[in-house]
Amino acid sequence: MESTDTLSDIEYSVREQLLLFTTIYVVSIENSKSINSVILGELRGSEDIHTYSHKINDRFENTYVPISEVPITRRFINQATKIANDIYGKNMRVLHTHRGKPIDGFWFNVMKSGDITGLHKHNKNAYLSSAYYLTVPEDSGNIVFREGGKEFEIKSMSGELLIFPSQLSHKVLRSNSSQERISMAMNFYTLPLVWEDDSGF
Q1: Strand pairing partners for 146?
Q2: Is residue 172 within 8 Å of 99, Cβ to Cβ?
């Protein structure tokens, strides 16, 4: 396994992508190949305890792993949260339980050839959401945001973290690659937490 020292203090750069009214922050993570290798290793090494949701077109769109089983991934999530807090000037956390029940703090999206991820929003109780790209082969599907009746396509790149409002609709285009496209999603919740019943993810 790669050294975990790469997660002690992540270096990154940020650029802005303006839609109609909303700014998407695109964060390029330095040394992402080493980081991604470790996270992918934890994902693949925990397959026997994966759970799934949102079965659409014979594919489960969300793959969940208990946070206790992926300690290096947890460290990356903490770093991603720090980045989001620095950009927005907020006090946010990626939560894993609420009132003793598991919630959608993070999950993986594994797409194979022909797969898409349908248009959706994230949990309405979250302030921000993100997509971090672990492996994005050529022609494996870009992310598309919808705002004001228009669609905005942003190229998905391995090692980039996209941060956006949780209620911004988005989807992933069809993968035409023979290799897997793997990303990790996170929801950031502001503290103190105000919670309403929600069926989003």
Answers
A1: 151, 169
A2: no
pLDDT tens figures, 143-167: 999 999 999 999 999 999 999 999 9
Type of residue at 110: V
- Tell me 173's DSSP state: P
Please spell the DSSP secondary structure of 64-124, one letter per residue. Answer: E--GGG-HHHHHHHHHHHHHHHHHHT--EE--SEETTEE--SEEEEEE-TT--EEEE---T
DSSP letter (8 states) at residue 43: H
Torsion of Cα atoms, 44 then 45 then 49 then 55, to 10°: 0
User: What's the CA gap between 155 and 164, in Å, rounded?
Assistant: 15
Model confidence pLDDT, tens digit, residues 162-190: 999 999 999 999 999 999 999 999 999 99
Q: What is the pLDDT of residues 6-27, one digit of tens each?
A: 566 789 999 999 999 999 999 9
